[in-house]
Structure formats: C-alpha cells, structure tokens
Amino acid sequence: MKCPICSSDTIVWDYYHGQVVCTNCGTVIDVVYIEYQYSVADNIGRGLPTVREGIARKKQREHSSRLRSQSREVKLYEVYARRARKDVIVNFEALKKRLYGEGKERIYIHKFEPKLREQINQDKELQQLLAIIDRDPLLASRTLRGKVAIALMLKYVLNNMEPDFDAISKFTSLSRTHVRRLYKQLHDRLHRIAMYIRGSCIRH
C-alpha cells in the first residue's frame, strides 16, 4: 500500500484511533474498525501518543535541527567574511561542505570567479586545456583564475604564438605581472604538458 498523497510506502496502523496513517506526511488513508483497544493507565494522562502526534514532534525536531544547522552555517560564514580581503568573497557551498567534513574546495574565491566559471562552461577547448593543466601537480594548485590564464597561454604556445599578456590579464582579472609569472611556470613545465597533450584528444 502506498500513500495517495505523497506515494510513500511507510504506512502504519494506528490501533489507538483505528486508522491507517502515512508516517511521512501524516495523511489518514483509511479508517479501520477493531474489536479491542489498548487499556491506558490513568496516570499516563492522555495515554499512548498517536501517530499524528509522533509525526508532529518528529517534524518539530527536524525543523529545530535545521534551524540550529543554519545558525551554525551563518555564524561560520560571518567569521570567514570578516577575514576576507578586498575583492575576495566566501564560497558558501564550499564552506558548508567543510563544516560537515566534506569536500576540499577553496573557501575564499575572487569575486570574478563565478562569472569566469560561466565562461568556462561555454568554451569546450578551454575545458580541455584546463583538464590537461589539472594533471600537473604544480599548475593544478593554482587558483581558478591562474589556471585559466595558464590554459590561455598554453593555447598560444600550441599555435606557435607569443601570448597576449594584456588580453589574458583582462580576461582573468589578474595583473600583467602575475600572468607573466604564471607563463614562466608554464614554460618550465612544458615538457610535462607535452606528455599530457599526447595522451589527450587535443591536436594542433
């Protein structure tokens, strides 16, 4: 038997009230008639708790638990937000995962990063280049903006062109000096990158 309201199959008989009840949403599915009832001691007061009362208390506990969790999350967010530098924001989803012992994403991200992720999602070639960079331990440890800058410079290198540092700086919101430092790192790792490219589907 399933609940006609929520389709749950967690159905119980409430012998105290003579009802068939869904424990998920509390709907009374059917009324049953029984020839006996439980005796209730006078000192118990209202007697055995009904299924509905049990469900109500369970929902109240779950609601209180959610509120406590949300309160912890907000307080932790405020702690991290106060420490954030200029143009840096808190990745709230990553923070929640860290709070519950999940994930290793960066908690602090540059305010430009969400927009940058959108651009990555629309560029298949950039995604492939980033996948190659992520195979190199040193380059993979860079921030997202740093890895995108390296990927764009790698694209120039694969086409035997000199990287346009100004354009890359503007695209990633990194300083030109920072981009040039990343280029040096890329240049030092080109022999490794070449091996990764040979094993990928990228061909130039």
Task: Walk me through what this model shows.
GO terms for molecular function: zinc ion binding. Keywords: Metal-binding, Zinc, Zinc-finger. The protein has three domains: 1-42, N-terminal domain of TfIIb; 63-110, no CATH class; 113-198, Cyclin A, domain 1. Helix content is 53%, strand content 9%. It has helices at 51-83, 92-99, 113-121, 124-133, 137-140, 144-158, 165-172, 176-188, 190-198; strands at 11-14, 19-22, 28-31, 88-90, 108-110. The strands form two sheets. Strands 1-2-3 form a three-stranded antiparallel β-sheet, with no helix packed on it. A two-stranded antiparallel sheet has the order 4-5. α4 crosses α6, α6 runs antiparallel to α7 (165-172) and α7 packs across α8. The chain is elongated. Residues 33-48 have low confidence and may be disordered.
